[in-house]
Predict the structure.
Amino acid sequence: MKKSILYIHGFASGPGQKAKDLQKAFPDHDIVSPQLSGQINLDMFNLKTYLFDKSFDFDAIVGTSLGGFYALALRTEAIINIPTYVINPALSPHITLAKYVGKSVPNHKTGEMTNIYDSDLAAYKKYKLSFNSNTFKKCKFFIGTKDDVLDFEELFYILEAENLMNKVIFSEQNHRHQDISNVIDAIKKDNLIISI
C-alpha cells in the first residue's frame, strides 16, 4: 500500500501544475489525480473507487474549486475522515455552473469540450454540504482574496456561525490559486505528512 495524496481538480480542468507541485513537495507519495468529467454522479463514483482502493493509503485530500466541493461532499457523506484541504471551494455548483448550461466549455488541460445540462445542475443540487465541527474537524479552507469567480460571503457566514473561521487561510490570489505553497506548508505543519 503506497502513501498517497488525492488531488481533485476543478471544473473544465485536470491534473496540472498543482499535482506536480504536490509531487515535488511529497516525493515519497503517489499523487492520485483522476481526470473528472464535471458530472457529479460519475465523478463521485470514481472518487469513491479510489478512496476504497486498498492499494492506496491516502494521507490527505486537496481539492480546488469544484474539486473542493467534491472533497467537502465526501466529508459530508462521512465517507472519509482524511485531512482535507480545499482551495477556493465551489459551495453551490448548481448555481455557479448554471451559466454554462447548453454551452460547450473547453477543458483547460485536455482541450476536450465539456457540456453541462439542466440534469447536471439538478444532480449537484441534491448534494447538501453539512457544515459542522465534526464534518470539518480535519479540514482547512484556502481562500484567495482576489477570487474572480466565486463569492465567499456564504462560506464565511456558515463558518462563522459554526465557529470554524480558524480553519480559513487567506492569501492574495485569484481563483486559480497558482501558488499552493501555503497548502503544502499547512499539510507539513499539521504533521500529517513528513517528507524525508
In short: The chain has a mean pLDDT of 87.
